[in-house]
Structures are given as C-alpha cells and as structure tokens.
TrEMBL record:
<dbReference type="InterPro" id="IPR020568">
    <property type="entry name" value="Ribosomal_Su5_D2-typ_SF"/>
</dbReference>
<dbReference type="Pfam" id="PF10509">
    <property type="entry name" value="GalKase_gal_bdg"/>
</dbReference>
<dbReference type="InterPro" id="IPR006204">
    <property type="entry name" value="GHMP_kinase_N_dom"/>
</dbReference>
<keyword id="KW-0418">Kinase</keyword>
<dbReference type="InterPro" id="IPR019539">
    <property type="entry name" value="GalKase_N"/>
</dbReference>
<feature type="domain" description="Galactokinase N-terminal">
    <location>
        <begin position="45"/>
        <end position="87"/>
    </location>
</feature>
<dbReference type="InterPro" id="IPR006206">
    <property type="entry name" value="Mevalonate/galactokinase"/>
</dbReference>
<dbReference type="Pfam" id="PF00288">
    <property type="entry name" value="GHMP_kinases_N"/>
</dbReference>
<dbReference type="InterPro" id="IPR036554">
    <property type="entry name" value="GHMP_kinase_C_sf"/>
</dbReference>
<dbReference type="InterPro" id="IPR000705">
    <property type="entry name" value="Galactokinase"/>
</dbReference>
<dbReference type="GO" id="GO:0004335">
    <property type="term" value="F:galactokinase activity"/>
</dbReference>
<keyword id="KW-0067">ATP-binding</keyword>
<dbReference type="GO" id="GO:0006012">
    <property type="term" value="P:galactose metabolic process"/>
</dbReference>
<keyword id="KW-0808">Transferase</keyword>
<dbReference type="GO" id="GO:0005524">
    <property type="term" value="F:ATP binding"/>
</dbReference>
<dbReference type="GO" id="GO:0005829">
    <property type="term" value="C:cytosol"/>
</dbReference>
<feature type="domain" description="GHMP kinase N-terminal">
    <location>
        <begin position="124"/>
        <end position="212"/>
    </location>
</feature>
Length: 423
C-alpha cells in the first residue's frame, strides 16, 4: 500500500482498533495525528512508495531488580511508549531518519564489525543485518522515518526498543513476519554485544519484543526460559507511574559495577560463577566462611538476590491468579529488599541528596494500603515505579510533579504486544 493510501485509511479509521490495542487507550486521536505527520514526512522524503507502519515499545522492570546479571529470574513488561516508524523497502542500503539523530546509510553488502561505529545507531543496524544473514534469514534495505516517545535514561530502554524495531522491520518485510519474538530479542542482544560493543543481558530486548508481562529465567544463559504472562492490566483499576526524580547518573558507573561484582564474589567463595548456581541454603550454611573473604554489603546483596529471584515466581503466580493484592504486596517487598539489602536507592557519594528515597517515602505516605512502589531499574538515581489506583492518580501525579517538576510523573500502561506491524 502506498503512503498516500495508508494515510487515507489511517484518517478513515481503518487502523483504529490496532492503535487502541498498542496504546492501551480508547482515545487515539493524538496517535493518529502522530502517524499522519510521519506519513507526510515520509511522502516528502521518499515519494509515494509502497510502505509499512511498524512500531516497537519500551519496557519496564517489574520484578527481579539486579537479578539478570546473576542469571536469575525477572519479570518485565512492554509499555505503551514506543518508536513509531514508516518503512519503505529498498534495494541495498538502510537509511534511518529520526529527529535529533544523524544516522549514516548502512550498506546491506558490508556487514563487517567496524570499530569506529562503536556505540552508534549504525552499528546496531549493521549488527542486526549481519545476524539475520548468519542465521539464514533474508535481508534487504529499507528507508525509515520514525518518532519515539520512549523516555531516554529512565529505565524504559530506548536502545532495546530500537533493536527490536530493526528486527521487526526485517522480519516483516523480508521474512513474511515469521521470525518469532524471542529470536528477534536475541538478535538485538547480539547486535548490541558484538557491533555496538556493549555487554548487555537479554532482559531489555526480550521485554520489548515479546510484549505484555514476560518472565524470564536466565539460569541457562544460552537458552533462557521465556514465558508471556497473560494479564489485562489496561482494564485493571491501576495505572503504572514512573517518576523521574531528576537524579544524575553521572559518575555512578563504578557503583553500578560493584553490584554484580560483589554478588559474583560471594558465588566465587562457593565455587560458582554467579549466584543462580548456588542455593540459598548453601549460602546460609557458609556465611562465616564467605564473610571472611567478602564484605558485609556483598552478603546483604546476595540475600537480596536469593529472595528477589524467588519473589518473581510469586509475582507471576499472583498475576496468573488475578490476585492484585498479593502482587502489590510483592512489589513493595521487592522495593524494600532493594533499599535494605541491595542498597541501590541512593549513592554513598552524595548521601545528602536522596531523590529516590524521598520519592519512595512520599509514595508510601500517599498510597498506604492502596498502591505499590519500588525503585525502578538500576537505581542510585533516575526513576521509581508505582502502581497507583486510578481514583488516586491525579493526586499522586500532581504531588510528584510539584516536587520534582512538571512532567516528572509519567502515566503508562502495559502494552499487550511487542514489535508490531500495523500495515
């Protein structure tokens, strides 16, 4: 279908049900306007060619705070913030246009790793193409123009959304949409590890690609166990809020790195590489021995891991049983464990400024016996997550925006699908 025809169908309401589904709301006028503007831009840049509308969402971590690097369990979900794209197939190059980004064309015939492309969008495009080809899938070029409302630096994972978008484009255009979402996530991780040159896990890509709530057990890191958890959050009585507390992540790399390192130090005393290879009972029996070689904080972080990775099982079961009261209780327990044992709610480099701690304390006061709250993502700075009753949403949102500035509180929902082709 040509770009002008797609726009006519869009404005005539032919894609309304799909837009309602991926945006988790009935009012989609803003989304229709968003896609209409993208189509206008594509028409001006590419001409009236055959095109597709393809999108990929960001994600949120729900359970399993700092468990993935120990090959533990996580619970995550895709959210209704995404990268929306108009894609036009073409011959031998991939051209990607997005406001605020300058991305050079990537040749389909040149798929070698390039050191100078480290940490660039070009590297992710090239890496995705290369992995598709290595796995025996069809590849080809495309021209794409996109708009993203995935928050950067908030733990929603804009890079994984981009990787899943690329995989979905190649799957839909050149492979009849037959490449499953788990495979697309693995391809995204491959591109990020080998071409972007960042050693990431698989959590972000899997949550963005599979869609809805997804639980992952990373014990076998080559073959993680992935399960989509069916739960209709959009029609529950709760909203998902992320609060950007405006803390800076600058100069925190060392502190982030110490979390996996200290957990691995504990595992090493027990003769293992990561904590998922140890049992909690084995750990408890050897605390004296471990303490002789590791810090007390390392032991506390290990306790967090063992409890947190098991807590994911309970969270999943609560969702499956439609038991939101138990689910909320477990969310709060996860947050307390991160605060007390993992100790990633504030940095010891600046203990007078505790943005996350304050946001959690305020959330506890506002949502007592009603909602749930926890640190979100890596911690130390950035965002908290809260499940807020819709009857209290305006009060909660206004309070957080007043404290941390207008636009600090983002209201999200859990999107039921990951990478998706509208047309």
């Amino acid at each position: 279908m040509k770009i002008t025809e797609i726009k006519q169908n869009l404005l005539a309401g032919k894609f309304d049900e799909q837009l309602k589904m991926i945006n988790c709301r009935d009012d989609i006028e803003n989304e229709k306007d968003r896609y209409a503007k993208l189509l206008d831009q594509a028409l001006a840049k590419f001409g009236d060619d055959e095109a597709h509308l393809i999108c990929a969402p960001g994600r949120t971590e729900v359970g399993g705070n700092h468990t993935d690097h120990q090959q533990g369990r996580v619970l995550a979900a895709s959210v209704n913030m995404d990268i929306a794209t108009v894609v036009v197939p073409c011959a031998n190059a991939c051209e990607y246009y997005a406001e605020g980004f300058e991305v050079k064309p990537v040749s389909v015939d040149d798929l070698a790793i390039k050191e100078e492309e480290k940490f660039t969008s070009e590297s992710l495009i090239r890496g995705t193409l290369a992995r598709f080809k290595e796995l025996g899938y069809h590849i080809g070029g495309f021209k794409a123009i996109s708009h993203s409302n995935v928050l950067q630096g908030s733990g929603i994972s804009s890079s994984a959304a981009f990787e899943v978008l690329l995989g979905t484009i190649l799957s839909e255009i050149y492979n009849d949409g037959k490449i499953d979402h788990v495979e697309i996530a693995k391809i995204g991780q491959y591109a990020e590890n080998n071409y972007f040159m960042k050693p990431c896990g698989l959590l972000d890509q899997m949550a963005c690609s599979v869609g809805g709530f997804v639980t992952i057990d990373f014990k076998d890191k080559q073959n993680p166990i992935v399960e989509q958890v069916k739960f209709d959050f959009a029609h529950s009585d709760y909203a998902l809020c992320l609060v950007d507390t405006k803390g800076s992540h600058a100069d925190l790399s060392d502190e982030y790195g110490l979390m996996p390192k200290e957990m691995k130090d504990v595992a090493k005393v027990l003769g293992k590489e990561v904590l998922s290879q140890c049992t909690k009972e084995e750990f408890l029996k050897n605390i004296k021995k471990i303490r002789e070689q590791c810090s007390d904080r390392a032991l506390l972080r290990a306790i967090h891991f063992f409890n947190e990775t098991d807590r994911v099982i309970d969270q999943v079961n609560a969702l499956k049983n439609n038991d939101l009261e138990t689910f909320k209780k477990l969310i709060i327990e996860s947050g307390y464990s991160s605060y007390m044992y993992l100790q990633n709610v504030y940095t010891t480099k600046d203990i007078e400024n505790q943005n996350l701690s304050l946001a959690l304390a305020i959330s506890e006061q506002l949502l007592q016996n009603s909602g749930a709250y926890r640190v979100h993502g890596g911690g130390l700075a950035g965002t908290i997550q809260a499940f807020v009753p819709k009857t209290m949403l305006e009060e909660y949102k206004n309070q957080m925006n007043e404290i941390y500035g207008d636009g600090s509180c983002f209201v999200l929902s859990i999107r039921p699908v990951g990478g998706y082709k509208i047309i």
